[in-house]
Design goal:
By secondary structure, the protein is mainly α. It is 77% helix and 1% strand. The chain is globular and about 55 Å long.
Length: 416
Amino acid sequence: MPAANSDGVPVVVDGDQDPPPDGGYGWVCVAACFMINCFTWGIVSSYGVYLSYYLRYNSFSGASPLDFAFVGGSTFGAAMLVAPLVTYLARRYGTRFPMFAGVIALAGGFIAASFASEAWHLYLTQGVLVGIGVGFIYIPSIAILSQWFSKKRSLANGITSAGSGIGGVIFSLTTGSMIENISLAWSLRITGIIAFVMTFTAVVLTRDRNKVIQPAQHPFDTKLLSQTNVWLLLAWAFISMLGYITLLYSLPDFALSIGLSRGQATDTIMVLNLGTAVGRPFIGYLSDRCGRIKVPAFLTLVCGMLCFTVWLPATSFGVTLLFALISGAILGVFWVTIGPLCVEVAGLQQLPSLLSLSWLTIVLPTFFSEAIALKLRRSGSGREYLYPQIFTGLAYVLASMFLFQLQRRRGKQISS
């Protein structure tokens, strides 16, 4: 008989069907998903370099800082908004079909953006089209990993999530250099070409176990919304993402606002991505060993406290780098743990359906977070980013409370 969660809803655990092999071809899938993260989210995380350039050089006449914030936000928003469509296409035509479509959209978005002459062109290309490409490639990959691993599920997700950090380091360094030494347009074109080659290769290497698992794959499963634990998980996702996007995109311009050079601002986002690359496998390992709910809850709280204790008083390059390194390791705890958390809450067969709900939940915060941050920014004052810093810290601290409550409910379920 399937186990039941604290809401009385049946949950299929790994032992109720052919168990994941915890290795084998799964490690090839880990390598492929690492590449996917590297050349999707890794590239997207370097948008802070573009944003800083757009804000400081007024690249598009008539465009406001808010316009450029929405370009970055629309990338994340579009990637998450397509989740129900991707889930449907994966169920109807197989996992690889939407992923190959995403490869074309991702590369096409960057190349088309290189010809942009107005801000709305960027919205459609570097924002929406790139976001659609990322969503079509990334969303199916999350479910694939959890099908191959059980005991090492969080570790596998941590290793692959580190790819976004490695990609962020690479593209944070090269993007700034390409813009300065070649041009903005060719920086976008080269990025698009590289993204196409690498993500195409990664998709070819992926392989799902849908015939064994037979996942539900409902684009919008309203039955899941009857569970309290699902609402706690989604609340954590929504609120923590408000802080994540604000921190990720604001840090380079924050560095410039305290008097650091453009090179130092680029170094800051590079160090943040380096922290991501190092920290995410460690988060996965800790989650497998110490608890797949407890660890992300604790790290979400720690990230919020770091915003108040390290980022808020930062006025020098050294302190900013320190904050970038430490926060980089944990600010994206959502991306490392969301797959294993969904399995903990709803079971392996319901994983694609709950993931689809999770992606939809974070559409609004990913789209509007940086716009909120720029509205809170006090241009021309001594501390331009004071309010965005407070906003980010509060978002992480509040989000952690929902996971701690989820952990408490799960503890009661297990003890009973």
